[in-house]
Write a structure and sequence with these properties.
The chain has 370 residues and is α/β, with parallel strands linked by helices. 29% of the residues lie in helices and 24% in strands. The chain folds into 2 domains: 234 residues, Rossmann fold, CATH 3.40.50; 117 residues, Immunoglobulin-like. Strands 5, 6, 7, 8, 9, 10, 11, 12, 13, 14 and 15 form an 11-stranded mixed sheet that branches. It has a 4-stranded parallel sheet with strand order 2-1-3-4, with helices on both faces. Helix 4 links the parallel strand 3 and strand 4. The protein is globular, with a radius of gyration of 23 Å. The structure holds zinc ion. Zinc ion binds next to helix 2. The site of zinc ion has 6 residues, from helix 2.
């Protein structure tokens, strides 16, 4: 019989032996979130839980029951999100008590990839390391563990997440709930129709890669390395989010000095915008006071986000194929043809631009437009 790895299923003697032999503990975190008609709501917690147990089988250690509280959950049907302060209030005392209880390696493994949620968790694992110098605490997520793997490594409810659940809990997946058309789009599925792309083999290969990488990192702690919850984030954002936005050439509108125009994400993955660095019109930088972003797509809930409120805990998503609007009330732009360039920070770690020619219409002289 293999050594049990579920914290809630073992007796105290097993915990004491773990603390002596391999003082490693895993906290899987997920959420309940709509992932399309074909997947269970617990995809993220099921994936995190399964990967933690597979890693613990290699490294030793125990896995806590999955925590289903998460921030940044998409506002889609039947999903439940909590504020990042609630997530922190739950996670902070858990991590502290694990450190006080003698665990030297604490892995917070999120199956939920929202970058605001992960930012809060990374800060909490850093915090417990500051407080307990002998402890390594790492926040990670499956997509960053696989950032060096060829092929698709990240999506929502599509090939990647469907393949994981086909590997971990195949009885819960119903591919026939998806349209029998490779081109069909489904709410909550952010890539090609997984009925035609997902496979258990892919799920097993991705799980194996992620688990081996995490086991290697944990082994590094035993050899004196220190946990760093930010290095893999940079690798992941660079892999997934690089590539500029496109200015929608005929979308410009000027009125009373304000300018608004659209930017489109033509890439296969989301952009998580945490700042608008600059906006230039015909080479001259304009004032961004009062500027705002909107993304009216279903499931986003971003209508009018002031750029001064953006940050790593309050970023703005523009996903695959979506278009957002940038409005700058003090741009001082006049109707006509202009070259525009907007520069955005993604996930607090890299920059992209959106630049191009923009045809700007103006308000009618009466002052109102319809
Ligand atoms: Zn998910």
């Amino acid at each position: 019989m293999t050594d049990p790895t579920a914290y809630e299923m073992v007796r105290p003697a097993r915990v004491r032996r773990t603390l002596e032999e391999a003082p490693i503990v895993f906290l899987p975190i997920g959420c309940v979130e709509y992932h399309g008609p074909h997947l269970p709501l617990g995809v993220d917690m099921l994936t995190a839980d399964a990967m933690c147990h597979r890693t613990a089988e290699l490294t030793g250690g125990l896995v806590l029951p999955p925590l289903w509280l998460a921030a940044g959950v998409l506002p889609l049907p039947h999903s439940i999100t909590v504020d990042a302060t609630v997530l922190r209030a739950a996670v902070r005392p858990i991590l502290r008590q694990l450190a006080e209880g003698g665990f030297k390696t604490i892995i917070v493994f999120s199956g939920h990839g929202a970058l605001d949620h992960l930012h809060a968790l990374r800060e909490e694992t850093d915090r417990v390391m500051d407080r307990f110098p002998g402890v390594n605490a790492l926040t990670t997520v499956w997509n960053e563990l696989n950032a060096g793997m060829p092929g698709d490594i990240h999506d929502h409810g599509a090939k990647v997440e469907t393949s994981y659940i086909m590997e971990f809990h195949p009885e819960t997946v119903d591919l026939t709930a998806l349209e029998d058309d490779p081109e069909a789009e489904h709410v909550g599925v952010y890539a090609a129709n997984p009925r035609f792309t997902a496979s258990r083999e892919r799920g097993a290969a991705m799980a194996d890669h992620a688990v081996r990488r995490l086991a290697g990192i944990i082994e590094g702690f035993a050899a004196g390395e220190r946990a760093d919850s930010w290095v893999m984030l940079r690798e992941l954002v660079d892999r997934l989010q690089s590539g500029d936005l496109e200015v929608v050439a005929d979308s410009g509108f000027a009125e009373g000095g304000s300018l608004r125009f659209d930017l489109h994400n033509p890439h296969g993955q989301s952009k998580y915008i945490t700042a608008v660095r600059s906006l230039t019109i015909d080479g001259a930088e304009v004032d961004l006071t009062g500027a705002a972003l909107s993304n009216p797509s279903v499931g986003e809930g971003h209508t009018d986000t002031g750029v001064d409120r953006l940050g790593p805990l309050s970023g703005f998503y523009v996903r695959r194929g979506q278009t957002m609007t940038l409005e700058a009330p003090r741009a001082g732009a006049a109707p006509g043809f202009h070259d525009v360039e907007a520069v955005f920070t993604l996930a607090d770690v890299m920059e992209i631009a959106g630049r191009g020619g923009l045809q700007v219409r103006g308000a009618a002289l009466s002052g109102h437009h319809s």
